[in-house]
Please model this.
Amino acid sequence: MFSHIPENSKPAVFLGNPASGWGNLAAWNPIDSISLSLDDPPEELVYFVKKYSGKFVAGFITYEYGAKRLDVPIHPLNSQLPAVHFRAYEAYQMLDEFDLLALNEWRPFTPTITKEKYSLDFDRIINYIRCGEFYQMNYTFPMISSTKLSPRSLFQSFRVKNQVEYSSFMEDDSWAIHSLSPEQFIFIQDGLISTKPIKGTIARSQDPKLDEILLNRLLASRKDQAELYMIIDLLRNDLGKVCEYGSVQVMESKSVQKLEKVFHTYGLVKGKIKNNIHPIEALISMLPGGSISGCPKKRVCEIIYELESHSRGIYTGTIGYILPDGTLQFNIAIRTVFQQNKELLLGAGGGITIDSIMDDEFNESLDKAASFQP
Model:
């Protein structure tokens, strides 16, 4: 994959699978870039993207940058990580074939919080729900590890265990991002916009019969169904802000996604974007993503700040690209590792509703990280 990409060339690599439409492509040696702080206005990013219309543009927006647009408190970011970072490239190259490395040379990821701390926060979330503060909240925590592998080798090793639809890799002088995300956030093409939220998870089994039983258990779960339907409704409303009146439709309300370690259920919502809204403006307007914040979004983000003691950074933000023809594709940056030298940071979490069970939610969070364990 990286054999023909020069060192220190600041590559952006995107790998999908046949089901996603997320192209296998790469670009390196950008002709320009922009980095924004949490305080910089989004108009600077809009100007940058419009300036390089007709070029290949790739980048990311952190969770905190989106949350701050809602006027909620946020934790400071890692000093090395921009709040927003985009690059313009002269062109990109399709990847017909790419090498993977089955290396396991990193330490196991371990949670930075105890189960007791998780339990206390879980109880506080349930109490907030009972008091009518919100209906659902996505609660997350960091997991840490370390490695001697180069960022490029590490990404290739992660990809072996995560043949997901919306993976990406970005490397800079002082950091690297490995996003092995199964979730599409925004896809815009020819004036149509869609979002594909994931809600509902259960661990898989290597026993085919038990695997089928587990899938049926997920599909029969009223809790997981309610969680998915709430987020579909939230994103339908988010799309309504940038779409022509009456054009927003729920195309899929409960479909199944099969990954290496877990099953997910997901939805699909589409609409026709208003003519006066640029695709990058539509993306910014929908941040943070509903599936990784909760409902209602602003109040939930306030409680996320209260309960989560660390910034999320790129985790639960969004990463993606804009093709020269204007097609925009961005993921939700879940299953995403931030690498700084030898240190690795992986976010884990999940949605909590009134019907959630603490042990199940904690274990589900760890299940989602299982494919990153050596």
The first strand starts at residue 12 and ends at 15. DSSP finds nine helices and 20 strands in the chain. The mean pLDDT is 95.
